[in-house]
Amino acid sequence: MGDRITPGPGATDNTHCSLADYDRLYAQSLSDPDAFWRDQSRRIEWEVAPSAIANWSYDPVDIRWFEDGVLNICHNAVDRHVASGRGDDVALIFEPDDPDEEGRKLSYAELLAEVIRMANSLKAMGVKKGDRVTIYMPMIPEGAIAMLACARIGTIHSVVFGGFSPDALAGRISDCESRFVICADAGRRGGKPVPLKANVDAALSKDGVEVDAVLVVNHTGANIAMTTGRDHWYHEISADVPAECLCEPMKAEDPLFILYTSGSTGKPKGVLHTTGGYAVWTATTFHYVFDYKPGEIFWCSADIGWVTGHSYIVYGPLINGASQVIFEGVPNYPDHGRFWQVIAKHRVNVFYTAPTAIRALMREGEDPVKKHDRSSLRLLGTVGEPINPEAWRWYHEVVGDGASPIVDTWWQTETGGIMITTLPGAHDMKPGSAGKPFFGIRPQLVDNDGGVLEGATDGNLCITHSWPGQARSVYGDHERFIQTYFSTYKGKYFTGDGCRRDADDYYWITGRVDDVINVSGHRMGTAEVESALVAHPKVAEAAVVGYPHDIKGQGIYCYVTLNAGEQDSAELVAELRGHVRTEIGPIATPDHLHLTPALPKTRSGKIMRRILRKIAENDYASLGDTSTLADPGVVDSLISGRLNR
Ligand code: 6R9
């Protein structure tokens, strides 16, 4: 059942939610969801308060929350704090990549002025309500400002992670028929430039990818090309825009954003979130899970290119009026103490990061941590992948000096916000377990045939009832939304994760059960990497699997067969790894590339991935039944190939 750790003395004083509160609120959220969510919806300032609360069905799939409510989420994240006299409170504390460079702080009043400036610049470029705008930015305040500006004028943002390649960017621009791009000249990460505008140019040079306008923020002064008529410098176009811009009234179910995420098949899906339910969900989860109190400093080290950045850098914290750090850099530059130095410098109270970062820093020992003052920390959080108990303990004992509770928050791009976690004032923690369902969440474990499993057991994790932050569709392909999430187990949302429930009703996520691998907390479809590989002229066939990796959680293992006449060589291996990197982005770079004369196939020609996974894991004893293989000899040659690398 795992160890049980009770938060230390003082750690749970004065929290928003005790165990008795949790039990009462959770019970109410199940027995009377309308009353519960009507109460929570008051965290939002509505132009028209909703009278309808939950209105959803999983068969057929049609999800609506707060349907007749009207609001603007940017108003809730920015304007309302200024209007209520808190305009001088700090909203964003920008910490640049280079610690010697001066950062900057934006108050809520300054943030409002910046958002208006960006919103009016977008309008000046011809952007209108309902348009899709692609945002490809470094981790600078303008990234969040661009998202808020879109929300303000009712356009749908699609943020693409700055580490994605021009090809990946092009695919995401054309899939949602985005006519506008917001980017920076370049970004900086770990002392190296990231050529964002050059990547945009490369993406837009591809056939069929065309936009009306590109808005370029000058961040580093890089030497870049500007296409006349299409590209606009932000500082120029914004110089003479009006200083006012009304918030567009949005219906609760109007789309807010699209975010592309990898699935088990085909190209990435544009997960669609709408306005009202997402606002209520991010506001409520941020309040309870991070137990935020006015005046505290919050820091989520994610990138705005992932859902964590959307929900817990932009919308959740800002709707709650929080003060937070936006960090451009990486954990190991200029040295392995960088995270802890930032925590000391800005007196961070709540820190939210990924297990992969914790594991990488743990390798460097305690000294880089102990060098910096972490006495401001009150609460630690993790997200993105299962955290191994050893890393959990290091985070708790070394980083948090045993004093700060940890919230291990399980959720997904599709869930919009945190779904399973302990609450700091309510629950004991178990290293490696995310904990308990958040309000309104009904997890269910099922076997492969959909049979419901009760009690302490292992199974496939489904959610049986909708919650306000749930994704509503896949952009432009509702059928794919239904197929992906609601058809495996009819009438239930299937998460794609495996999970164990223990006798204390704690949930332990065991990882993906589909063909999605989780590399450093980033989702990668094996099919995406395979299609990048087979696009190479020398490659005949490819099969990609995940395998356990000390730092990244999972690594990418690629089996590749070459076209007739091509020779296996170290140069070719390097070339193919580089090829995947260029096609998708650095996060997709294969860890192992195994050239093999053949892949193990059934007689019907299906690649037996189960065997490939075992070989990648160096686990040859339990290959299971190989009798259905067309050519069992392939397995021996794969094993000797694995051992030689
Ligand atoms: C927020 C985010 C979602 C997948 C999810 C699961 C894994 C996320 C986790 C976790 C164990 C946690 N995951 N948080 N696994 N414990 N606390 O990461 O969204 O990028 O869509 O990934 O990440 O496998 O299904 P996303």
From TrEMBL:
- All copies of domain Acetyl-coenzyme A synthetase N-terminal, residue ranges: 22-77
Q: Which residues form the AMP-dependent synthetase/ligase domain?
A: 81-465
Indicate which residues the UniProt annotation says bind ATP: G384, E385, P386, D408, T409, W410, W411, Q412, T413, D497, R512, R523
Q: What's noted about post-translational modification?
A: Acetylated. Deacetylation by the SIR2-homolog deacetylase activates the enzyme.
Q: Which InterPro entries match?
A: Ac_CoA_lig, ACAS_N, AMP-bd_C, AMP-bd_C_sf, AMP-binding_CS, AMP-dep_synth/lig_dom, ANL_N_sf
- GO terms classed as biological process: acetyl-CoA biosynthetic process from acetate
Q: Which residues bind Mg(2+)?
A: V534, H536, V539
- N6-acetyllysine PTM positions: K606
Domain AMP-binding enzyme C-terminal intervals: 528-606
What CDD domains has UniProt attached to this entry?
Answer: ACS (cd05966)
- Keyword Magnesium among UniProt keywords: yes
List the SUPFAM superfamilies.
Answer: Acetyl-CoA synthetase-like
Q: Which domain of life is it from?
A: Bacteria
Q: Signal peptide position in this chain?
A: none
Identification of the protein by name: Acetyl-coenzyme A synthetase
- Protein's organism: Parasphingorhabdus marina DSM 22363
